[in-house]
């Protein structure tokens, strides 16, 4: 029994941020009902990296475990009535429609809270529910760029560098997850539901709390260096360096001791708090040349025992085989009915009494439509009629 066992979540979101937030609630034991069109949610048809899967593409598979699927046509009056009926017993409702769409569909907070005043309604958007950017597309890359994150690393002469992950989506997902949990706690104390609004822009700004505060409070400009320094507000050496066989990362080592370890005499006597800024590019360049002399493993054997913060640069192939990852059980494996053996990142939060568990893999379109409708009190012959009429779908 997960920590959220007994709570029901209606997941009406699409793409990554919303489904990822809902999946986290499912991982903690909530009964997550993915409400999707009879043709299937958008992400089912948009593969990531060309990984199509058998019947479920990998992108959808990775974001929708521990959910049941109800495939229903919300544009049909009967379909919308089904959703409104489910709202009566739901605890959390999640949507990431563009601002205004929920109102047009008749599934906005005012409408649903009138049906169920205890409902936690999580509304996710790109830029907020109103304002000059309200109609702009809230896509991950656009928010990385707008939030200032791309100009915190790399060479000043190079173009801004985006993250290699859907960073804005993931951060927004976790923000919505956090908001839903906090609102549920408030409801436990008071009995009242509420509207929880999360947008990608604010989430991306908040996660850069330290960096932005250095600018707004400390008055320090966000200035990239001539060398590919890993962070505009961190002293040298700080970044990725080539070795004889691969790469290594080094994070703000003490210059005097570090110079001795890598054979760079010019670092002797340098002050870590002043020279590391005044000579940032010089330190980076000299470190880069010295570290080419040995392999990554050789440097780690030298640097780690001396207390230098250093580490290898993994790709995904190395990550899944890493001994610490194996020790932690960071990945879970299970057999999916259509996709075969599946290995994905697991549960990042560990509870001693209410551990997360994998109860089901990502569902087929409408796989659980019949059982969800039966739980809602709809008679079997009525469910048959809805299925035959295409209002709902059972795969």
Automatic annotation (TrEMBL):
Protein name: Crotonobetainyl-CoA:carnitine CoA-transferase CaiB-like acyl-CoA transferase
Signal sequence interval, chain numbering: none
Cited Pfam families: CoA_transf_3
InterPro entries tied to this protein: CoA-transferase_III_domain, CoA-Trfase_fam_III, CoA-Trfase_III_dom3_sf, CoA-Trfase_III_dom_1_sf
Gene Ontology MF term list: CoA-transferase activity
Keywords: Transferase
Superkingdom as given in the UniProt entry: Bacteria
Gene3D superfamilies: Crotonobetainyl-coa:carnitine coa-transferase, domain 1, formyl-coa transferase, domain 3
């Amino acid at each position: 029994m997960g920590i959220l066992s007994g709570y029901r979540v209606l997941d009406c979101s699409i793409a990554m941020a919303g489904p990822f937030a809902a999946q986290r609630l499912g991982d903690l034991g909530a009964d997550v009902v993915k409400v999707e069109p009879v043709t299937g949610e958008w992400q089912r048809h948009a593969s990531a990296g060309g990984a199509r899967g058998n019947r479920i593409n990998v992108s959808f598979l990775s974001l929708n475990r521990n959910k049941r699927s109800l495939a229903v046509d919300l544009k049909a009056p009967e379909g919308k009535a089904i959703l409104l009926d489910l709202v009566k017993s739901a605890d959390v409702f999640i949507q990431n429609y563009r601002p205004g769409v929920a109102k047009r569909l008749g599934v906005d907070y005012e409408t649903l809270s009138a049906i169920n005043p205890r409902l936690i309604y999580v509304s996710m958007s790109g830029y907020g529910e109103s304002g000059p950017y309200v109609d702009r597309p809230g896509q991950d890359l656009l928010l990385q760029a707008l939030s200032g994150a791309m100009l915190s690393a790399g060479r000043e002469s190079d173009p801004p560098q985006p993250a290699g992950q859907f960073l804005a989506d993931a951060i927004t997902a976790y923000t919505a997850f956090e908001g839903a949990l906090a609102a549920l706690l408030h409801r436990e104390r008071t009995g009242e539901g509420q509207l929880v609004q999360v947008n990608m822009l604010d989430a991306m700004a908040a996660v850069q709390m330290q960096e932005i505060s250095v600018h707004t409070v400390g008055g320090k400009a966000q200035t990239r260096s001539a060398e590919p320094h890993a962070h505009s507000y961190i002293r040298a050496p700080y970044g990725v360096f080539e070795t004889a066989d691969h790469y290594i990362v080094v994070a703000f080592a003490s210059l005097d001791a570090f110079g001795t370890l890598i054979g760079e005499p010019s670092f002797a006597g340098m002050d870590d708090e002043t020279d590391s800024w005044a000579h940032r590019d010089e330190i980076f360049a000299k470190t880069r040349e010295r570290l080419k002399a040995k392999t990554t493993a050789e440097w780690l054997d030298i640097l780690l025992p001396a207390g230098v913060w250093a580490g290898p640069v993994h790709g995904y192939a190395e990550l899944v085989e890493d001994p610490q990852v194996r020790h932690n059980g960071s990945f879970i494996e299970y057999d999916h009915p259509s996709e075969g053996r599946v290995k994905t990142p697991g549960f990042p939060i560990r509870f001693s009494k209410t551990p997360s568990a994998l109860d089901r893999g990502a569902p087929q379109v409408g796989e659980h439509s019949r059982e969800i409708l039966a739980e809602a009190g709809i008679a079997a012959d009525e469910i048959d009629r809805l299925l035959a009429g295409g209002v709902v779908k059972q795969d």
